[in-house]
């Protein structure tokens, strides 16, 4: 598979509708009408999605009378899986190292925290109102 073909596969997988169609086809062959059922899309919109999947080699369509059953072509996903495998291995290694690091911290975390005392709050006097300060309500004497 060429790099351009890999781009077609990833482009096809980028859309959630197409991923849902592939998930449904992983259960077995299905006619276009059944694939369109769960989506609030027009017939032409579903057909466009199917053409993208077909162009990427992820599905194949056949004709059985008036039915147009679609079938998943799982081998088309192998180049994408091969491309992603080194990244999966890298992330698994990093997560394993993180797990070991967190285990090494576990004894320190389980130790009881040191006791600290909190300072007592000092009550501040509330400010006096004008009347309490001995002033009148704006009347001149």
First-residue to last-residue Cα separation: 101 Å
Shape by Cα distribution: elongated
CATH class of the domain at 3-78: Mainly Alpha
Work out the helicity level.
40-55%
How would you spell out the order of helices and strands?
A: HHEHHEEH
Radius of gyration: 34 Å
Question: What's the CATH H-level homologous superfamily of the domain at 3-78?
Answer: Winged helix-like DNA-binding domain superfamily/Winged helix DNA-binding domain
How many extended strands? 3
Largest sheet report: 3 strands, antiparallel
Class from secondary-structure proportions: mainly alpha
Strand neighbour order, sheet with most strands: 1-3-2
Q: What is the number of helices?
A: 5
Determine the CATH topology of the domain at 3-78. Arc Repressor Mutant, subunit A
The CATH architecture term of the domain at 3-78 is: Orthogonal Bundle
The amount of beta strand, in percent, is 5-15%
**What does the average pLDDT come to?**
82
Query: Low-confidence segments, ≥5 residues, pLDDT <50?
Result: none
Verbal overview:
With 141 residues, the protein is mainly α. The protein has a domain at 3-78: Winged helix-like DNA-binding domain superfamily/Winged helix DNA-binding domain (Arc Repressor Mutant, subunit A, Orthogonal Bundle). It contains five helices and three strands. The chain has helices spanning 3-13, 16-25, 32-36, 43-55, 78-110, and strands spanning 30-31, 59-61, 69-72. A three-stranded antiparallel β-sheet has the order 1-3-2. A hairpin with a 7-residue loop joins strand 2 (59-61) and strand 3. Helix 1 packs antiparallel against helix 4 (43-55). The longest helix is centred in the middle third of the chain and has 33 residues, at 78-110. It is elongated and about 95 Å long. The model has no long low-confidence stretch (mean pLDDT 82).
């Amino acid at each position: 598979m060429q790099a351009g073909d890999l781009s077609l596969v990833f482009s096809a997988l980028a859309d959630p509708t197409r991923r849902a169609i592939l998930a449904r086809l992983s259960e077995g062959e299905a006619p276009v009408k059944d694939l369109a059922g769960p989506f609030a899309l027009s017939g032409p919109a579903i057909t466009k999605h199917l053409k993208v999947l077909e162009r990427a080699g992820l599905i194949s369509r056949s004709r059985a009378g008036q039915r147009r059953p679609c079938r998943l072509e799982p081998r088309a996903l192998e180049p994408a899986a091969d491309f992603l495998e080194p990244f999966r291995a890298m992330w698994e290694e990093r997560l394993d190292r993180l797990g070991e690091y967190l285990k090494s911290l576990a004894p320190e975390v389980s130790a009881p925290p040191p006791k600290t005392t909190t300072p007592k709050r000092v009550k501040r006097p509330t400010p006096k109102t004008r009347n309490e300060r001995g002033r009148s309500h704006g009347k001149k004497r």
